[in-house]
Design brief:
Layout (H helix, E strand, L loop, with lengths): L1 H86 L2
């Protein structure tokens, strides 16, 4: 009878131990999910910021390319005028 009582006490102690581990596992899972959500939010924020920066740089690049094109066109016009003046006596 004592042996059954002792075994029951051991099983109850083991059950409490496993219930505590389960509670810790649940808590750890909640923490991990929170961290994952936070990381995803930060990643999305960074992605949006990088996309905005990329768009800004593309606009600046297009503006710079138009400026170069206009300056090149002006140079060609001026060179053409110089050639026309050199040809005329």
């Amino acid at each position: 009878m004592n042996q059954l009582r002792e075994e029951e006490l051991q099983l109850r102690a083991r059950l409490r131990e496993l219930e505590e581990k389960l509670a810790q596992t649940r808590w750890s899972r909640k923490v991990l999910l929170y961290l994952l959500e936070r990381m995803e939010g930060e990643r999305d924020f960074l992605r949006r910021r990088l996309e905005q920066e990329n768009e800004r740089l593309q606009r600046l690049n297009a503006r710079y390319a138009r400026s170069l094109w206009q300056k090149n066109r002006r140079i060609v016009e001026l060179e053409s005028r110089l050639q026309d003046q050199d040809v005329r006596p």
